[in-house]
């Protein structure tokens, strides 16, 4: 009798499928990226990311409480300052918007969730690059490292449980670790954006943070063509003391994610970025895709490829779906 192998037997009923399902997504796996805008009196909508806003300090606190109630695993905070300068000095200033908002969240939600801070200069510089510039206009790796070290301390002092260097400077994890250890923050963790690609999928994020960038980040972020290099970057970050590593973007880089997960001895995160969010939302708005099924499938795929943690703008929404809460 042919066929003798019948994989469909295990797909017959929802209960059978549930029993043999290999991958799950739970609210605790999801991290919500959030934006807070200095001086804002009302939340500001981000047109290319429908449903995502630049928060005021007040609306940020409220949204953080809602996220905690929905059971998300963590929050990743980005600051949108009023003023930019060549050194990105708002990043290290204890009164800079990101540090102020971290203190707000630390007092509002405390240890009820994991508070993470984006550690990068691009939101704060007037040229929009992730580091400071040398005389010749290139991004100066080693001078940037010193500033990252200070920025890490400012964020740890402000209550970040985790700092997340996203600037792709060589040596950033090592310098940040040293700087934290030297200032009494040996317990603050580092989530390293290890394999971060120079991706067109960050497009909507530039609006989200009022990016001043002209040009691209190809001299420091990775070439989308390269996979082997992602392993090298990850191994360096692990050797420098990364507590967790990340691959970014997610959906177009699942092969990279899978390889990184196979060599990492620390938890692996993947960032489902602004362009991934925008694509699905646009298709949903046109009636071309079903939101819940599409979003949950995308998150499941990212988990299946090896992510322990997924950063996603749908974190709260997805957490509610997963708990069967309809709002
Ligand atoms: C840099 C940073 C970027 C994103 C997160 N951190 C932008 C960039 O590297 O150009 C993109 C996130 C997204 O697109 O959702 N601090």
UniProtKB/TrEMBL annotation:
SMART domains the UniProt entry points to: ALAD
Enzyme Commission number(s) of this protein: 4.2.1.24
InterPro entries xrefs: ALAD, ALAD_AS, Aldolase_TIM
Active-site residue list: 196 (schiff-base intermediate with substrate), 248 (schiff-base intermediate with substrate)
PROSITE patterns reported for this sequence: D_ALA_DEHYDRATASE
GO function terms (MF aspect): porphobilinogen synthase activity; zinc ion binding
Catalytic activity: 2 5-aminolevulinate = porphobilinogen + 2 H2O + H(+)
Pathway where this protein functions: Porphyrin-containing compound metabolism; protoporphyrin-IX biosynthesis; coproporphyrinogen-III from 5-aminolevulinate: step 1/4
Protein residues bound to Mg(2+): 233
Gene Ontology biological process terms in this record: protoporphyrinogen IX biosynthetic process
Binding-site list for 5-aminolevulinate 1: 206, 217
Positions bound to 5-aminolevulinate 2: 274, 313
NCBIfam families in alphabetical order: PRK09283.1 (NF006762)
The family this protein is said to belong to: Belongs to the ALAD family.
The protein's assembly and partners: Homooctamer.
Protein name, entry field: Delta-aminolevulinic acid dehydratase
């Amino acid at each position: 009798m042919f066929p003798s192998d019948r994989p469909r037997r295990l797909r017959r009923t929802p209960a059978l499928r549930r029993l043999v399902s290999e991958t799950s997504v739970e609210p605790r796996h999801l991290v919500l990226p959030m934006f807070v805008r200095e001086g804002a009196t009302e939340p500001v909508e981000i047109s290319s990311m429908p449903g995502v806003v630049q928060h005021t300090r007040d609306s940020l606190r409220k949204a953080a409480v809602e996220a905690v109630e929905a059971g998300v695993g963590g929050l990743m905070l980005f600051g949108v300052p009023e003023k930019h300068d060549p050194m990105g000095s708002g990043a290290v200033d204890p009164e800079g918007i990101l540090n102020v908002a971290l203190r707000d969240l630390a007092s509002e939600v405390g240890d009820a969730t994991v508070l993470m801070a984006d550690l990068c200069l691009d939101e704060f510089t007037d040229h929009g690059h992730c580091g400071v510039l040398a005389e010749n206009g290139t991004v100066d790796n080693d001078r940037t490292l010193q500033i990252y070290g200070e920025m890490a301390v400012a964020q740890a002092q402000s209550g970040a449980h985790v700092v997340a260097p996203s600037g792709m400077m060589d040596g950033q994890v090592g310098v940040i670790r040293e700087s934290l250890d030297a200032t009494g923050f040996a317990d603050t963790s580092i989530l390293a954006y290890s394999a971060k690609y120079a991706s067109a999928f960050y497009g909507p994020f530039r609006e989200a943070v009022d990016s001043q960038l002209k040009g691209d980040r190809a001299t420091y972020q990775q070439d989308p063509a390269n996979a082997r290099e992602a392993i090298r970057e990850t191994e360096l970050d692990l050797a420098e003391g990364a507590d967790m590593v990340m691959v970014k973007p997610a959906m177009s880089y699942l092969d990279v994610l899978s390889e990184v997960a196979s060599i990492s001895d620390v938890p692996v995160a993947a960032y489902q970025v602004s362009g991934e969010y925008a694509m699905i939302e646009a298709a949903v708005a046109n009636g071309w895709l079903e939101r819940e099924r599409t979003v949950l499938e995308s998150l499941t795929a990212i988990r299946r490829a090896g992510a322990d943690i997924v950063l996603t703008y749908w974190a709260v929404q997805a957490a509610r779906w997963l708990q069967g809460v309809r709002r």
